[in-house]
Give the backbone structure.
Amino acid sequence: MYSEYTNNYARLLAQQGKVVISESGIDWVKYGHFMIPAYLPHRIPEISNENAKEVLKRANCPFVRWESKVGEVHETEWWFIVKRGPWSWDNCTSKTRNRIRRAQKYSLRAERVEPEIVLKNGYEICKKVVVERYKRNDFLPDYNDFQKRIKAAKVFNDNFHLFGVFEEKKLIGFAENYIQDKAVFWESIWYDPEYLPKHSSYILLNEMLDYYLNQMELLYINDGSRNIYHKTNVHEFMIKVFGFQKEFSNLNLIYSPLFNRLIQLAFGFKNIFEFMDEKWDVSLFSKISAVLLQEQIRRSCLNK
């Protein structure tokens, strides 16, 4: 069914119901309202503007985005958050080690789980995260989309891992991890807020670091690219507590003609949109501020 795609990661994303396009041997996936390459950082192919323009035309979206020179450039304004092995919690601070031990004393444990466990209990955890912790219903995944996404692990077990954290037999958090060519992308991690004081996040992350870097001996763990939209300190936490690092790249964008005109007009008012975003918690202001920051980053990467 998905033979037109060149890699299993793209086939997995299509199985999950995501929009995937293959153009001249390069696979792309729709991420929100735009297209990105369907590859982990070390596998992103060399992409021409012509290829990106064809994808833009076929996807009928505002823009396409991709990285280049991953790990080859230094101190750009765009990066991935990466951890390379081997892993040992002995390298953490005593505070972090104590929190992992306390989680163990609370009878918390973490391990890879079958899709049925997450299908049964995972969505309720998502709701608690979004409603109780972030108080933003627009971050809650559609229930049917969630079910389809998790069920794909049955078909692509080698490319999509589910990790759970438990208090005895109760699922209190889970992670969705994507594998491609000896690397893993931790795309989503969901913690029941009620159990965070018991350090559920520490036990889950420690076990996943050991599993992927020591047991599987993967090249690296990717916790995502620079976050320009969601206001979160997750990446800072990963760097400070678990030793993740920034690996820099260039950022490239191709806009549709209409969206390009809007960006050029709005860019001169970037500071005003940033002020409104900071002053008022309005989704529209956050989105405008994010795309203008993205354009600023693109410009800063030119000729690097």
Observations:
- The mean pLDDT is 94.
- The two ends are 40 Å apart (CA to CA).
- Residues 104 and 203 are 7 Å apart (CA to CA).
- The first helix runs from residue 8 to 15.
